[in-house]
Amino acid sequence: MFKQLLILFISLESVYCVCLDPNEKELSGICFHYVKQKMTFEDAKHWCHYENPVTPSNLAYVPTQFAANFLASYARSAFGVSDGSFWIGLSRAHNWDQWTWDTGLLLDGWSNFDSQHNKNYVAEQISNGKWITLDDSEKHYLACSYDPTNPPTFPPIVPSTLSQSTTARITTTAQPTTTVRTKNAQGLLT
C-alpha cells in the first residue's frame, strides 16, 4: 500500500510540476533553480536576471522557515556538498537599511539569521538552512526563484560607458601669403 501511495505521489508531482525545467524544484508555486557555479552576490543576481537559460528569475526568495529547510535539503544534492553556503536574494544597501528581497519585497514577519548580521549580503547555509551575512566579494553557489505563471521581467542591460582614450591630432595649415617684389635701382627684383 505504501509503495502504491509513493508511486501515486511521484506521478502527481510530475503531472502538476509547474516549473519550466524538470530539474528545478517547486514549492508552493515557486520554482527554484540551483546554479553550481561560484559567483559574487551581484554576479549571482545578474545571472538570475539575465543569464538563466530557463527564464528570467530573482535570486531565491525564501518566505518561510519551511522554504529555507526545503532549499537547504535540495542544495546538498544540487551542489554535491553538505556544508558551505549559497546566495539567496536578500540584501541591503547599508547596515542601517532594511533587508530587501531581490523581488523588491521587504523582509517582514520572520528572520532566519544564524548569528550576527553586520554585513549586507545574505547566503543560506547548506548544513542547517540558517542565513549568514557576507561581503559581496565572496564567491558562493546560488539559487534563483521565479513564479512560472508570472516570471519577472528586467530592463535591458545598458552598456556601461567605458573610458576611452582619445588621441588628438593637431594639424596646421599654412596661411596664404602674399609676396610683394619690387625692382631696385638696378632693375633687379627684390
In short:
The chain is an alpha+beta fold and 190 residues long.
SSE topology:
Blueprint: H1 2-16, E1 25-27, E2 30-39, H2 41-51, E3 58-59, H3 65-79, E4 85-91, E5 100-101, E6 121-125, E7 131-134, E8 140-146
Features:
190 residues, alpha+beta, Mannose-Binding Protein A, Chain A, eight-stranded mixed beta sheet, 3 helices, 22% helix
Tell me what you see in this structure.
- With 190 residues, the chain is α+β, with helices and mostly antiparallel strands.
- The protein has a domain at 31-146: Mannose-Binding Protein A, Chain A (Roll), CATH 3.10.100.10.
- 22% of the residues lie in helices and 21% in strands.
- It has three helices and eight strands; from the N terminus they run αββαβαβββββ.
- Strands 1, 2, 3, 4, 5, 6, 7 and 8 form an eight-stranded mixed beta sheet that branches.
- It starts with a helix and ends in a 44-residue tail after the last strand.
- 25% of the residues are buried.
- Residues 5-15 and 162-173 have low confidence and may be disordered.
- This is C-type lectin domain-containing protein.
- Residues 1-17 form the signal peptide.
